[in-house]
Amino acid sequence: MDKYDPQAQEPELSGFQCAQCMRDIQVGEEVWRGDFVDFEVYLDSVGCLAMFTSKYEADIDEFEFTTIEGTEADCMSKTIPDL
To answer: What pLDDT was estimated at residue 11?
Structure first.
Protein backbone atom coordinates (compact mmCIF):
# COMPACT_ATOMS: atom_id res chain seq x y z
CA MET A 1 0.00 0.00 0.00
CA ASP A 2 1.37 3.38 -1.00
CA LYS A 3 1.11 5.97 1.77
CA TYR A 4 0.65 8.71 -0.86
CA ASP A 5 -2.02 6.90 -2.87
CA PRO A 6 -4.66 5.11 -0.76
CA GLN A 7 -6.03 3.34 -3.86
CA ALA A 8 -2.67 1.84 -4.84
CA GLN A 9 -2.50 -1.95 -4.73
CA GLU A 10 0.36 -4.37 -4.33
CA PRO A 11 1.57 -5.72 -7.67
CA GLU A 12 0.47 -9.26 -8.48
CA LEU A 13 3.61 -11.37 -8.68
CA SER A 14 3.64 -14.31 -11.07
CA GLY A 15 5.96 -16.52 -9.05
CA PHE A 16 8.53 -16.43 -11.87
CA GLN A 17 11.91 -14.71 -11.61
CA CYS A 18 14.33 -13.40 -14.20
CA ALA A 19 16.99 -16.09 -14.70
CA GLN A 20 19.72 -13.45 -14.92
CA CYS A 21 18.96 -10.80 -12.28
CA MET A 22 16.46 -12.79 -10.14
CA ARG A 23 13.92 -9.92 -10.12
CA ASP A 24 10.32 -11.03 -9.45
CA ILE A 25 8.17 -10.85 -12.57
CA GLN A 26 4.66 -9.40 -12.31
CA VAL A 27 1.54 -10.75 -14.00
CA GLY A 28 0.99 -8.90 -17.29
CA GLU A 29 4.68 -8.10 -17.73
CA GLU A 30 6.37 -8.71 -21.10
CA VAL A 31 9.38 -11.04 -20.92
CA TRP A 32 11.54 -13.30 -23.06
CA ARG A 33 10.81 -16.99 -22.53
CA GLY A 34 12.86 -19.93 -23.68
CA ASP A 35 13.66 -23.55 -22.96
CA PHE A 36 17.27 -23.84 -21.85
CA VAL A 37 18.67 -27.31 -21.23
CA ASP A 38 15.83 -28.87 -19.16
CA PHE A 39 14.41 -25.62 -17.76
CA GLU A 40 11.88 -22.99 -18.79
CA VAL A 41 13.72 -19.66 -18.49
CA TYR A 42 12.28 -16.13 -18.20
CA LEU A 43 14.30 -12.94 -18.80
CA ASP A 44 12.81 -9.54 -18.04
CA SER A 45 14.89 -7.16 -20.18
CA VAL A 46 17.02 -7.01 -23.31
CA GLY A 47 20.08 -6.55 -21.10
CA CYS A 48 19.33 -9.71 -19.14
CA LEU A 49 18.66 -11.58 -22.39
CA ALA A 50 22.01 -10.46 -23.84
CA MET A 51 23.96 -11.30 -20.66
CA PHE A 52 22.27 -14.69 -20.22
CA THR A 53 22.76 -15.81 -23.83
CA SER A 54 26.43 -14.76 -23.89
CA LYS A 55 27.17 -16.20 -20.43
CA TYR A 56 25.68 -19.63 -21.22
CA GLU A 57 26.29 -19.56 -25.00
CA ALA A 58 22.56 -19.95 -25.61
CA ASP A 59 20.98 -19.23 -29.00
CA ILE A 60 19.16 -15.89 -28.76
CA ASP A 61 16.73 -17.04 -31.50
CA GLU A 62 15.39 -19.72 -29.15
CA PHE A 63 13.76 -17.07 -26.94
CA GLU A 64 10.33 -15.63 -27.69
CA PHE A 65 8.85 -12.34 -26.50
CA THR A 66 5.67 -13.05 -24.55
CA THR A 67 3.41 -11.71 -21.81
CA ILE A 68 3.01 -13.42 -18.44
CA GLU A 69 -0.72 -14.17 -18.32
CA GLY A 70 -1.02 -15.80 -14.92
CA THR A 71 0.88 -17.04 -11.92
CA GLU A 72 3.24 -20.00 -11.73
CA ALA A 73 0.55 -21.89 -9.82
CA ASP A 74 -1.91 -21.29 -12.69
CA CYS A 75 0.60 -22.67 -15.19
CA MET A 76 1.35 -25.72 -13.06
CA SER A 77 -2.33 -26.57 -12.61
CA LYS A 78 -2.72 -26.68 -16.41
CA THR A 79 0.19 -29.09 -16.91
CA ILE A 80 -0.30 -31.47 -13.99
CA PRO A 81 -3.48 -33.56 -14.17
CA ASP A 82 -5.59 -34.00 -11.04
CA LEU A 83 -5.10 -37.39 -9.44
So the answer is: 84
